[in-house]
Write a structure and sequence with these properties.
alpha/beta, four-stranded parallel sheet, 5 helices, about 140 residues
Length: about 140
């Protein structure tokens, strides 16, 4: 592991497959830059649909490199679960932040930005900016 402090990214989805696929897509589109600490946290411990505070906390701990952790979520209870973990205060690494961004586009923007060594504020801003991406 590098001594470089990088922003870690956690992708929280109700589906393990969706979280893993978005992580793979974001990593692939980030290209050959610095490998960003990135972890999917999808579904429940039993492999079902839903969210798991334990899986989210473990994913956040696994990507923490001392520069903060950006957490992107897909829907409703994923957001609520992350908010509850943040409110508890001791379940997630210091500097963990829930980022309000579209799940797929925000994840790609966050990973690309984090791969440049950007700080948590810049990673969050890039992910949030994905709301403005026009498709037509």
């Amino acid at each position: 592991m590098s001594d470089e402090k990088l922003v870690g990214i956690v992708l929280v989805s109700h589906s393990a497959q969706v979280a893993a696929s978005v992580a793979e897509l974001a990593r692939g589109l980030a290209g050959s830059g610095t490998a960003v600490p990135l972890a999917p946290a999808g579904g429940t411990e039993g492999g079902g649909l839903g969210t798991s505070s334990e899986l989210i906390a473990a994913a956040a701990a696994s990507v923490d490199r001392g520069a903060g952790v950006a957490v992107l979520t897909d829907l409703g209870s994923a957001v609520l679960t992350v908010k509850a973990l943040l409110a508890e205060g001791d379940e997630l690494p210091a500097g963990t932040r829930l980022v309000d961004a579209p799940f797929v586009e925000g994840a790609v923007a966050a990973v690309v930005t984090a791969s440049t060594g950007a700080d948590l504020d810049a990673v969050e801003a890039a992910a949030m900016e994905a709301y403005t991406y026009r498709k037509v």
